[in-house]
# Entry
Amino acid sequence: MIIHHPLLGPRDASEFVHLGDATLLSRPDWQADDAIAQFHEYLYQRENPAGEYRELWYHEQGDRSWLIITRNTLTHEISSVELARDVARKGSAS
Amino acid sequence: MAKPTLQSRSRLAGFATEIGGISLREICDISIISIAKPLHDHALFDQNFIELFNQAPPLAPTSLRLKSPNCRVFQTQIDQWFVIGETNTIQDKFDYVTDQSDGWVALEISGENVILALERICPIDLHTDKFLIGHFARTMMEHMGCIILRTDTQTYQLFSASSSAESFLHAVETSIHNVT
# Structure
């Protein structure tokens, strides 16, 4: 599988490590009144879609960047690759 | 009490060989520093960089080769660059500087069939029309992280962790044997 890194171009998937759901970027406020419920949701509840899924990948054997990759879980087709930093700054991880 | 005498020793003791027209040697006495942008003060970093190197920080895959100071600069990750060569005069210019010299081993591989040897272990597209002279990539070979830099038509420099220097050398040397 080839991942088109937004800065470096096409790279082999073996250079990357898969972390999981991109919503992990949106860490709950630990001081919120319902923080325990929010963290339970954050840590344990995952969608398992048959189709497009946004997930975090780490370019460990490369430039050490975190990426958000939109991948179709049925076909493995990758439709979008973004720098996680840019997504986090825009506040659109979920 | 006897006065100790210390001698520097490179990771591969100055290894050099030639196999089937491909030469492979360790680059000794290399100086590497990393410089990084402060999180909230990119403008000052860019200004200092341009003052020193007369150019903006190069972006991957392009490296910057300079005569004064005598060094090469390339981006190793977002907001971080390696300076290889004459580094002692530039360290004061930047806030975030790390001496990386002891952490890396450097090899130079060259020869007519050098790509044949590299393409078996390097996942980067090394086609000469794609990977130009001065281009570099941070990738892996035989599961070891490395940087590959093309310095001439048929010459490449490879940088990998000094802690696994001999394993890295073995991987490259074996690949040369497999194509010659």
